[in-house]
Amino acid sequence: MSGDLFSYVYQFADVFAFLVLSAAGLAIIFGMMGIINMAHGEFIMCGVYVTSATYHMGLPLVLAQACGTAAAGLVGVVLEYLVIRPLYARPLDSLLVTLGVSLIATQGTLVILGSTFPGIGTPLGSFDVGVYTFSTYRMVLFAAAIGVLGFVYVLFMRTGFGVQARATMQNAAMARALGVPTSRIYALSFGIGAALAGLCGALYAPTMNLIPTMGAGFIVEAFVTVVVGGASVLLGTAPAAAVLAIIRSGLNAWYGQVIGQIGLLIAVILIVRVLPSGFSGWLARRSAS
Amino acid sequence: MKRRSLIAGAATLPLVAVVRDRTARAATPLKIGLLEDVSGDLAIFGIPKLHGSQLAVDEINAGGGIMGRPIQLMHLDPQGDNARYQEFARRLLQREKVDVLIGGITSASREAIRPIVDRADAFYIYTNQYEGGVCDANMVSVGAVPEQQIATLVPYMVEKFGKRVYTVAADYNFGHLSAEWGRSVLKPLGAEVVGEEFIPLGVSQFAQTIQNIQKARPDWLYMLNVGAAQNSFFEQAAAAKLNLPMGSPIKIMLGFEHKLFPPPALANMYATANWFEELDTPEADAFKKRWHAKFPTETYINDMGYNAYVAVYMYKMLAERAKSTKKEELRKVIATGNAGIDAPEGHITIDPKSQHTSHRMRLLRVDEHHAVHVVKDFGVIEPYWLGQVGCDLTKSDPKEQYTPDHLPKKG
Amino acid sequence: MFQRLNGPQTLGNGRGFWIGALAVFAVAVAFPAVADPYDVGNFAYFLIWIFMALGLCLMWGYGGMLSFGQTFFFGLGGYGYGVIEINIGAAHGGSLAALVLAVSVAALAAAILGYFMIYGRIGGVFFGIVTLSTTLALAAFVGQTAGPEWTVGTARLNGFNGMQGMSSLQLPWFGRDIDLEESALYYFLLVLLAATYVGLRLLVNSRFGNVLVAIREDPQRAELLGYDVRRYQLVTFVIGSLLAGLSGALYTAWGQFITPSSIGLPAAAMPIVWVAFAGRSDLTATFVGTFVLLFAFQTITIYSEQSALVLMGLLLVATVLFAPRGLMVGVGQSLARYSARRGG
């Protein structure tokens, strides 16, 4: 019986980790800059590929994952400078630009590196609870998801950058007038968002099949988490991921993956109908009143 | 030999107008229209398929073409998009007026172009293994079908590992029909499906499925998962120490998972195939050598690429025996019942009733180091199912896809 | 009538524009007489998609509502046509009735979904995401209908492999049916599209259009001026989505086939790409630009093999960076400037 109970907790933790990790980078870029980054999946793919390449060059997995994260962040900063910066005033157009970037990135990867890429075996083995065996690494993923939430909290609430970033987010013109270097804040935010996407890829690289279009597998979950969460990463992403993880893992367990997937999308529609600006908007209003 | 040197001479001496005109008439190219996805999600399959067709065309052209006519291969890339399949099938048939259309990966892409092929009354060769059942006089299928892949695999797995089976299938037509095939083969054996799970395409996370399997305690897994995302199951199952034998009619020879995942994720996988690169008969070895000489960076010569290669030779045989490229003449050759070629797997023949192809089926096993061993040779198996349920293209042409729950009307 | 076609909400209002437009229409009418039948059929196919682009242009460009769900209504129209046509048959106007009914189904769904969203005050980015979720949910749902239990009357939805067996459009004509294919289909679509274009121009240049643009610019002010903002938005959403349903039904009739991949990603992003590329602020720009883009993407895919998707990506990035209001609006404005300079 304890095996079954643990299994539910494990499944919840697994879906929660997937939602948080795949959404965190997207949420920062959307929350800070109002940009819907259609190339989010390709930042994840970048993290995966660099992790695998450096791992196969002989780096230990953890260092390879650090490389994957850093590479995605770097690409993010460069991309921000080249194509996002000219579009600050037109957030919807940045949707199109990032869609173009996404096409170029997936197909470019296919042309240059081929249709497949060598995988990495999952480390750390397994453990038993009751009749079940569980992959230990997936507990690491859950811990990493908590770590990412903690990192985002510290970054935005406890650092000078965080204060300036929150000021920029609330009123960019005012922040600029007060001497906040808003374009550097935007560039950094975009880079951090991209790096978190890369981290997601780096962490999932040892558990997946590696192909150029693999980023698409994260996109839907990332988007719905961000939408349900709303504009604030701090108030939104964590509760959104928790609620959606309960819905998804419950439906998966009792009705199978098909209902899990459709149910998730319908839940999103209903939640947005009740809370038109997501969890963070609702929480912010509640704390204000 | 003589004709080839004449053509070569004409090409290098463009001023000899008389010679050039004569050879040009003798050598009006025979056009093969090819639709394979070399971009997008399915590129992993489409690229070896394109290579297979190119290799066959090069070899045939080097040997003098078909009936003395060189082959012109016209390939378009539908990028995995069914609408592009429709556009490009029209283009190849109406604008380029190709003699034969080859290609398509998913069943959806095949069904997208079949109405267009039928309307143009063209000749079309589908080169993938699939769920079977298409009864259409305009189409020849050279891939393996369930009676060749599943009716062989499942009894072996039951005998070797036991009667409790868990099915993990992609939630679409191929998965549902193959699961149904599995059930119908399992029932007379007294075996039982202890769990059956359908996974939406594109899903890559399997923690729940793995737990469900552990709870059901099956003897072996019947794997019908499809696509790169769903293949992540193997790594995740291995990480959770699932350690169950797996049987599949599609793994290894199609997606070469044993080459992509580090061992031992695919250990104890059993699969039935008409082709896999580890096949080491002399004919197969010679074929592999030619392939790798032309495409040195190919990771694996998969079943689809092999079928694409065989399809061109199948067409050559039909056209040369019919002395024509007309559909009706080609079908007369098929109707003889001995329209076959010596392929790298062995001798294979087109069945006149269903226009599907017989195959030499082998059962292979993947070990913990991901080496592949042949454990059983089933010999040549006919595609008998369509004929059994009443599809006979020599008598009528319903242009339908039949399934166990959608059979031809009797009478 | 002519006066009402022109106004501040459309580019191209002068005599010169309309003479040019008539000339283009005349060329389009004469085209099948001189062209390869394949090209006629191919152009007819492009025309099919323009309806949904015009619908999105109305919603997004004029109404400020970015719907990511055109493919939802496209799918309803397409599957609706298939189910109805298979059940009632194509003869005696049956296929045309199926077309009309399928579009009505899409319009009804648009009214329900639109009411749900617009009266629930879902706006901005969230409007896009809810419509996207809707279309993804429909794609996932239809994708799992492979089994025989998913049959409506005699029509099988047939899951991922797609629905088939419906007939093409048949036009009853003095006792016999004309099969609408190739050039017959081309003329049918040309007339339908011209009528749609003129109808939409009348709409946006009417009082309704002016109010709609006012709402896009500032919904609160429009509301304070006494307009029922949400009713205007709902009507716009229904018209725009209905046109997507029309595209879907026509597409299914054209290829006698439809699959869930016409409903899911990446298909859902394509109308947005067309309209943004062409210039969402104007109907004519969307019309011309969508046609140009469909033609360009197809040509690129035919001639450049694997680099096609890379080139499309670059085209998209370059358009957004260098022609911020869309390529066709940019071209239109420079033409206008040029002729003004020459005239003045």
Low-pLDDT runs of chain C:
none
Residue fraction in strands of chain C:
under 5%
Radius of gyration of chain C: 20 Å
Distance between the termini of chain C: 29 Å
Identify the biggest protein-protein contact and residues per side.
A-C, 43 and 41 residues
Number of helices of chain C: 14
The total tally of domains of chain C equals 1
Topology-level CATH name of chain A? ABC transporter involved in vitamin B12 uptake, BtuC
H-E order of chain C: HHHHHHEEEEEHHHHEHHHH
Shape of chain C: globular
Query: What profile does the largest beta sheet of chain A have?
Result: 2 strands, antiparallel
- Helix-strand makeup class of chain C: mainly alpha
Fraction of residues in helix of chain A: over 70%
Number of strands of chain A: 2
Neighbour order of strands in the largest sheet of chain C = 1-2
CA radius of gyration of chain A: 19 Å
Tell me which CATH architecture of chain A applies here.
Answer: Orthogonal Bundle
- Specify the helix fraction band of chain C: over 70%
Structural domain count of chain A? 1
Order of helices and strands of chain A: HHHHEEHHHHHHHH
Share of residues in strands of chain A = under 5%
